[in-house]
Design brief:
signal, 9 strands, Alpha/beta hydrolase fold, Sec-Metab_Biosynth_Hydrolase, Rossmann fold, 6-stranded parallel beta sheet, hydrolase activity, globular
Length: about 260
């Protein structure tokens, strides 16, 4: 009798553990883009964590697509259970590559982000439609001792170019702390993108001056976006100015 009861108790515990595993929420991995850093996700992270989602805001190196994607791929590989990969701006190209080969990545979310096809670069897509003004807003390139250059947005132009719907004082802090991207990263061609195999969601603002809204709409349609949220007047950092809208879309993708 005792042995039977013990077996029943053990079976119940195992089934309970299985049920918990099946209902556990996926981990959301957030990948920032050029001229930003992981803190740009703070508002979104706060909402997701409050709603019970495990979150990792990865520190995107911004050195090259292949290098950055390999790093994010390693982060994904370290996570047990399902993952929702979210990319902002250049981070969209990174997640499009990093998701390949990972069965635990269930969906992709592009936040004012590039979704290149094979053979395309961020620079190619940025110039595909008129309206982008990033080139004129860049500061003088910083030459790197190992070759190549780092690119920054001129701090005096950062608010208007990158974060026009963010309070000026906050934008000034973002400008001072911005992470540079190499020119090589922006011109590196993409491999076969994961959005051809995985469901994707898109959100962007009509006030984006880094990536024209027409380019973002084109990429969302081409990727077969499950739902595209267009935020009237939002800047390139829609996740900073509209964290609830972005978090809501991520949670939709997580379901």
């Amino acid at each position: 009798m005792f042995k039977f009861a013990a077996v029943v108790a053990l079976a119940g515990a195992l089934l309970s553990g299985t049920a918990v595993a099946e209902t556990a929420k996926p981990t959301v991995v957030l990948v920032h883009g050029a001229f930003a850093d992981s803190s740009s996700w703070n508002g979104v992270v706060e909402i997701l964590r409050k709603d019970g989602f495990p979150v990792v805001a990865a520190a995107n190196p911004l050195r090259s697509v292949s290098n950055d994607a390999a790093y994010v791929s390693d982060v994904v590989a370290s996570i047990a259970g399902p993952v929702v990969l979210v990319g902002h701006s250049y981070g969209g190209q990174v997640i499009s590559t990093a998701a390949n080969g990972h069965d635990n990545v269930k969906s992709l979310v592009y936040v004012a982000a590039f979704a290149p096809d094979a053979g395309e670069s961020v620079a190619d897509l940025a110039g595909k439609f008129p309206g982008g003004t990033l080139g004129a807003a860049l500061a003088a390139p910083v030459k790197l001792s190992g070759g190549g250059v780092d690119l920054y947005i001129d701090q005096a132009k950062f608010h208007d170019q990158f974060a026009s719907d963010v309070p000026a004082e906050q934008a000034a802090l973002m400008a001072a702390a911005q992470r540079p991207v190499t020119d090589a990263a922006l011109n590196e061609k993409s491999g076969e993108p994961a959005w051809k195999k995985l469901p994707s969601w898109f959100v962007y603002g009509t006030g984006d001056k880094n990536i024209p809204a027409a380019a973002l709409a084109f990429m969302a349609e081409r990727a077969g976006s499950k739902r595209t949220v267009v935020v009237e007047g939002a800047s390139h950092v829609v996740m900073v100015s509209q964290p609830q809208k972005v978090a809501d879309l991520i949670e939709e993708a997580a379901k």
